[in-house]
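B., you asked whether I could sanity-check this one before it goes into the benchmark set. Here's the sequence:
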Amino acid sequence: MIKELRFMILEVVRQANVASDKLKSYSGNSYVTLFLIGFVFLISSCDSNRVYEDNVEFKDRTWKITTPAELEFEVSDTTQVYNLYLDVRNSLDYPYARLFVNYQLVDPNGTVLKKEMLTENLFDVKTGEPNGRSGLGDVYDHQFGFLTNHPFKSKGKHKVKFEQFMRQDTLPGILAVGLRVETIQK
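And here's what the prediction gave me:
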């Protein structure tokens, strides 16, 4: 719930910045934006299992095959086990029900630990209704687990690279792709 609320607030801030000309007529604009940003930080600090979470946003609302999302996170405790999630934000402009994504997990020495293709449904295959959580308008957020109970053998910076693997080089309707890493409470 915290993640969905945070995405919703970030989307509000993004849309507020896009529509800044309209907001300039409201004298408290900067106070509202500062409040929302502070609120996001407050909410995100309450998530004690999260080790890392970040998104790569695509400015033109398309994911090009030449633009992989590469994210780097630190593993400092090899006694823990971790869950890794693919975060996807899409709009109703996305033309397919499913999304195919290749990912690579690379350790600090550059060794590929895991390489796999993910197939995830962004829309219901039968009805065409969007899956995920909608916080604002036509934007939907998804979180797909792709590695569960995963132990890391080495400390240091690990990388995950996501590449879209669709039949279209420029994939419309994908606003952002990200990674969440969390520890599992024993």
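One thing to flag: The mean pLDDT is 85. Otherwise nothing jumped out at me.
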